[in-house]
Amino acid sequence: MISFEPTEDQQMMRDTVAAFATDQIRPVARDADESGQIPDGVVQQAWDLGLIQSAIPEEFGGYGGDRSAVASALVCEELGYGDLSIAMHVLSPRLVTYPVLELGTDAQKQAVLPVYSGEKFAAATAALMEPTMGFDVNDLAVTATRQNGGYVLNGSKCYVPLGAEAKHAVVYARGEQGTEAFLVAADTPGFTVVEREKIMGLKALATYEMKLDSCVVPADARLQGDLKPIFNRSRVALAALAVGVARAAFEYARDYAKDRKAFGVPIAQKQAIAFMLAEMAIEVDATRLLTWEAAWKIDRGEDATREACLAKNYAAEMVLKITDNAVQVLGGHGYVRDHMVELWLRNGRGFAVFEGLALA
Amino acid sequence: MIDFELSEDMRVMRDMINQVAQQTMRPISHQFDEEEHTDPVEWQKMMWDVSKGSSVFGGGPSDKKERGASNGKPAERNVGATVTIEELSWGDAGLYLSIPNAGLGGAAVAAAGTPEQKKRFLQRFSEGDPKWAAMAITEPGFGSDSAAVATTAVRDGDQWVLNGTKIFCTSGQRALDKSEGFVVVWATVDKAAGRAGIKAFVVDHGTTGVTVTKVEDKLGIRCSDTAAIVLEDARIPLDNLLGDAEVHTDSKKGFKGAMATFDATRPAVAASAIGIGRAAVDFVRDELAKAGVEIHYDRPAMKQTAMERDFMAMEAHLQAARLLTWRAAWMMDRGMQNNLEASMCKAKAGLAVTQVTQKAVEILGPLGYSRKLLLEKWMRDAKINDIFEGTQQINLMIVARRIMGYSSKELN
Asked: Which residues touch B359 (CB under 8 Å, ≥6 apart)?
């Protein structure tokens, strides 16, 4: 039966993360963007919320909670509202734990999950994206070739978050059955950091170009099974993060417009501005609902490819438009870095490009 | 718990109404678009026979009893109404608007009438011949600015005397001249009091001094009658006034109360828009499949065709509008204030479906533009949803006021 009301548990988690985003993330977001560094303190505080450990079964040291994509969409929106770079940083362990939980063998779970169930934040990553114009998760350039009963991985990856400090990575490559995923320890020979990337947004998040140069992995490194649910969880996470970024920009522009006066009245009382803000508000809600629906479909165990892609594409377009409008509402003030809106526009533009940088 | 699946009752109802739409509406859709001002009498009679007395065609705030539970199930009358309206409008929006029922006029009586008034005016909709009730707000001199009502109501002994001209009254001719229905007329009892002076009056069929002077020729929804009504010393009983006769300057009983009707009717209009949009999207999807064009949802921009991109955008905007509409209806079922969400869904659906149907005509090219198919008709029908029950811009204004906490004085 149709309902738009989160469960009590979901709402509690949402409120907790919302407060964390407002009180702890937002105050450090600007400095983090300028310095290219996220303070350890906020990362550890996020870790202490249990966002990663909660989905790991108790036998592997976690809290044994579920892995609801709907619940995660709620959390992702709030973290994205705080700051996108910080959100992706603190969620990065999921890039390994979720695929392992979804597709891993007991041995893989045993080897990996306890690392992400401890007291301290531990970074993990995914090497999915590649430096090419028409990047396509179903048509990768990095290859996985069978050799001596194992695989050898070759090629270049980019936008690998926390690639230098991650303990494990899931490396996606083109194998005999199309796109395949491999669980790789960070210190595996032949898997190396090329350089930290300089990109338009996500400046606080350390992302790396990485190289796979005859990187040999054993046969059992390959995650068996359908990767679609993983990619769909990524699309939902990105869509939800986009909703958070868009909502941040909308609220900031709204509050500014009510405060800023022109011709004797707040500019929010001018239709040209008021209508922009109204459309922003509608689209934030529209995108959130599309995202929830895709997440809901994932939670039902159905193929959510259509819904997840529609939601992610819609979100990518919407977040760009809304963050751009937010800069526009602030005018010249929106263009200077004293205000957050230019940062959100830079981050907002990225969603059309991002794939696989977070999992819901 | 967040859930996007309709209840089983709703799904059964939806499938049943979809059959009605497919089997009885689509076959006559073309005819009653071409033959404007002609009533689909047999079809109307059939719809009257199957639906009279049911509340399924009208949403509205649920009362406490209903909200609690019926057979242990939570109320879903308004979600149900949006589902029903979407299916009927998928069949044909002009025909949907021509179904004999208590409509907007009845909704006003149900919302603001006394038990006696409800019995006197609404009972007729569950018996006898097909009937309509309508709502007359717009006048030649104003549209969106509902507070500028110029039609007057003056008390004379135990009667109200109404004078003025109303236009764009949906089903006005059917309510007054073609059935034993009524029209709810908005008129002012005290022009100086502004909005507070505006009251709603039930003008019954056969009232002397009430004349339908014109039925509009329109771009779309041609089967629906859109009437101009002149009131010349039209005398109605004192107790045909809905609500309170007092002029309250600051009360929910006055103008604000009347405007609250829109919180229920806007999701209904949005649902109708979505039905038309879905008709177009379904049709385009089928034609693309026949032509061997596949939609790959998970391809990057560089590998998508313009066609795929357009089609996916149509689907996404339509679904976004539907979810906003369900939310507004669901809130009403839960007894929640939904003024903001009702305007959000109406603004989104009106625009989205206008654009979706326009794109559908473009995609089908010469076939889309041809009157042999229904696409061009759906495009014409869709546009009304961007206009009536508050234009897109009026709804944006309401959204803007709500999100910023502005009164209508502060933002207009």
From this structure: B310, B313, B314
Burial (CB count <10 Å: 0-12, 13-18, 19+), residue A145: middle
- Name the residue among A324, A320, A297, A301 with its Cα closest to residue A309: A297
Calculate how close chain B gets to A189, using CA atoms only, in Å: 32
DSSP calls for A180-220: EEEEEETT-TTEEEEEE---SS-TTS-EEEEEEEEEEE-GG
Q: If you compute the radius of gyration of chain B from its CA atoms, what whole number of angstroms results?
A: 21
| E strand spans, A227-301 | 261-262, 265-266
Give the C-alpha separation, B76 to B6, whole Å: 10
Q: How far apart are CA A199 and CA A207, in angstroms?
A: 9
Quote the CA–CA distance of B272 and A290 in Å, as a whole number: 20
Minimum-distance CB partner of A269 among B297, B344, B410: B410
User: Is B301 within 8 Å of chain A by CB?
Assistant: yes
For the stretch B219-267, pLDDT in tens is 999 999 999 999 999 999 999 999 888 887 665 555 666 677 788 889 9
- DSSP character string of B324-366: HHHHHHHHHHTT---HHHHHHHHHHHHHHHHHHHHHHHHHHHH
- Please tell me the distance from the alpha carbon of residue A6 to that of residue A14, in angstroms, as a whole number: 9
Nearest by Cα to B263 from B183, B150, B343: B343
Q: Point out the residue among A6, A285, A305 whose CB comes nearest to the CB of B324.
A: A285
Q: Is B393 on the interface with A (CB under 8 A)?
A: yes
Give the C-alpha distances (Å, rounded to integers) separating B155 from B35, B137, B203: 42, 20, 15
ipTM reported for the complex surpasses 0.90: yes
> pLDDT digits over B137-148, tens only?
999 998 888 778
Rounded to the nearest angstrom, the minimum Cα separation between B85 and chain A is 16
Two structure tokens written together for B277 = 């949009």
The residues that bridge with A175 in the sheet, in sequence order, are A178
**pTM for the full model?**
0.95
Query: Does the distance separating the beta carbons of A275 and B397 come in below 8 Å?
Result: yes
B12: helix, strand or coil: helix
